[in-house]
Amino acid sequence: MDGIHDLGGMHGFGPIPIESQDYRFKHDWQRRAFGIVQAVAGNTPYVADQHRYKIEQLSATDYLTLDYFEKWITATSALLKDARLVNDQELATGQKEFDVDLVNHPAVSADDLLSAMKIGADYQFPTNSQPQGFAIGTRVRVRSDSPQGHTRVPRYVRGKFGTVLATEGVFQHADSVAAGQGRNPQHCYLVSFSAAELWGSSVEQADDDILLNLAESYLEPM
Amino acid sequence: MDGIHDLGGMHGFGPIPIESQDYRFKHDWQRRAFGIVQAVAGNTPYVADQHRYKIEQLSATDYLTLDYFEKWITATSALLKDARLVNDQELATGQKEFDVDLVNHPAVSADDLLSAMKIGADYQFPTNSQPQGFAIGTRVRVRSDSPQGHTRVPRYVRGKFGTVLATEGVFQHADSVAAGQGRNPQHCYLVSFSAAELWGSSVEQADDDILLNLAESYLEPM
Amino acid sequence: MQDNLSDDHHHDPIEEGAALRVRALEELLIAKGLVKAEAIDAVVEYYEKETGPRNGAQVVARAWCDPDFKAWLLKDGTAAIHSMGFKGYQGEHMRVVENTNDTHNIIVCTLCSCYPWPVLGLPPAWYKGAAYRARVVREPRAVLAEFGLDLPASQKVRVWDSTAEIRFMVLPQRPPNTGNLSQAELADLVTRDSMIGTAVL
Amino acid sequence: MQDNLSDDHHHDPIEEGAALRVRALEELLIAKGLVKAEAIDAVVEYYEKETGPRNGAQVVARAWCDPDFKAWLLKDGTAAIHSMGFKGYQGEHMRVVENTNDTHNIIVCTLCSCYPWPVLGLPPAWYKGAAYRARVVREPRAVLAEFGLDLPASQKVRVWDSTAEIRFMVLPQRPPNTGNLSQAELADLVTRDSMIGTAVL
């Protein structure tokens, strides 16, 4: 989705607020918001790309003005609602209106949550399980595809030419997972773009590089 | 400038508010705002691309939330300030603080303003005054240039391939004019892009076309 | 459509702020001698009452009735339209694009709100809004469907994005069973949206 | 850094709204049995106190002291970092990129806020904000200058945009005149920003 979240290369956002924003949590409610998002991810369940997609669907103004963790909570609330674990009325009041199936959606314990966080999420498949369409060193062009749904190709590389530097292995495909269309595993490449290719004559320094990890289906041969 | 104003192709803005926004002026202050912008353009002076550039420099949130004519007034106020015809204090209070040189900035009369509007602004130069780099039928690529300043290349055609359908003649160059760097006249082309080239496999109908007028310096040979 | 500050006060404090700001600016510029109130009056009246889609409708109706004019209009829109007296700011350079059974045209300005003022007047708010500008270059058929227009896949859509000094206007197809109408009667049938391309006749 | 609703009330009504909303959601989910308050406590404490840039600093210091480890780290960042126990969510797949006299690396996530949690903890707010994400891929040198870092044109900048499951971490250059320091002392020199690439040591 070519939404406001796709900020790479945009002008107009001013200086980096380094000093005023060198914090991870400024308010205790941000800590709680962070914790809630982690604690219900497993039993709802949802994965990061689904959570990201909900945030991407905020209005552009909300995206730019809401606190980061408020966006997280908004996305998590939407995912809980999609899973029919809460309803709008409950979210508005904080008052429980109906019971949920706790056998299939059990609250995670502190120990189990920490264990899960320390293990992480495995989205990888065996490297030889899918064909590798691009050899290292190949010149590729990023496809113009720009689906309405979640995708992990920033606009600023769309249609641009780059070079495959490495394959990272085979992973589930973010677009497919966020759309609820299965895992669609495919190779993920490390692709290098020259700054000159991305920004043309307005480039800051032509021979600087920008590197991205891009899935097989985002690329086409040059 | 790759700012929020460059909306072409973005997702997330919902349905067209056809019924609720089928008006030109909803409030009388919008009429006054429109009139002010026209009435001071000549004696400030400024041209459309300078006015557009001021609007583009609004914060993204202001751009998306302010009324259209409030953006116009904000831009005009900034241009008047740049010309040292008003200052911040005056703009804040509406109270005059200093006199201006009315010999060089005379208020336009109703008749003269209407005459000027009916004549229009001539930004064209003789067609043979500049070399025409691209023949009709030529395949071209839109350059990746994306300057910090005002430009008239939308992001959604950047790096894309199109076909020159016509030359429109020689015009002053918006980027140069808005940057205060002179008129830099050059050919302006009508360039056609297939929807498939712009939107890839997410295209609505592959053989639809999108056509833009693009200046010589925005294009490179394929 | 007229309202005033006290009206604004009742229904929309944001509008009130803008209204106060515009009033302050107008008063300031008048006090400084930079603007004359009657010039503002005149230009507003001109664009509200003397220009507008009735101008474009006359161009369209004449093209339907006069094959030579139509040929000229499609070949040199600027000269043909100016010859009818519809000229001036935002209409200095015109390209008229013809709808046919094979092709449907639609105009937009994705970067701001360029629009052919002398023939269509000032644009409606939706034309200047984010949704129309964002979507019509990507999914013109979905946008047209919201306007009640469902095009067959066999009809190609051409979207004209107004990125330079040239302004576009659509020449809609003449409605069926209008052979007995005068040029003036035909002009009455031509809507603003049919010349933007968000409607057919 | 702790505050509460009444504090919020005094300085920022927007914050108060978010705080009330989060409290309501937490109470709702607890009432429904979907979440345990102690699980929230535990995960917050873990990311605030047990992970963070001290982990990454240990990786860096070891790489400076142990050439074999450094070679492994650059060849297979995932295995080398996991071998030190720094693993888990947002650090499942790691690529470590080395700063040299010829090349300076810097990491970003333009689409959201991807960041290597097990080695660097949670990202600072500026890393997640619009200005950093918008600008660092286009004008990394201007951004670095705002961080107080002026790079020579002779040093190539490589910007790593975290668009998939792999998380990046910068291996900064070892500061001069540190030959006599222990690995633990070296780790104390390594800053978070040096591993993001917005600082050098």
Short summary:
The complex is a heterotetramer, with two copies of chain A (222 residues) and two copies of chain C (201 residues). Chain A is built from eight helices and six strands, in the order ααααααβββαβαββ. Chain A has helices at residues 28-41, 48-56, 60-65, 68-82, 88-93, 110-119, 174-178, 195-199; strands at 124-125, 139-142, 161-171, 186-194, 209-215, 219-221.
List the SSEs and their pairings:
The complex is a heterotetramer, with two copies of chain A (222 residues) and two copies of chain C (201 residues).
Chain A: H1 28-41, H2 48-56, H3 60-65, H4 68-82, H5 88-93, H6 110-119, E1 124-125, E2 139-142, E3 161-171, H7 174-178, E4 186-194, H8 195-199, E5 209-215, E6 219-221
Antiparallel strand pairs in A: 1-3, 2-3, 2-6, 3-4, 4-5
Helix pairs in contact in A: 1-4, 2-4
Chain C: H1 5-11, H2 13-31, H3 37-50, H4 53-65, H5 67-75, H6 77-83, E1 93-98, E2 103-108, H7 117-120, H8 125-128, H9 130-135, H10 140-146, E3 156-161, E4 166-171, H11 183-189, H12 192-196
Parallel strand pairs in C: 1-4, 2-3
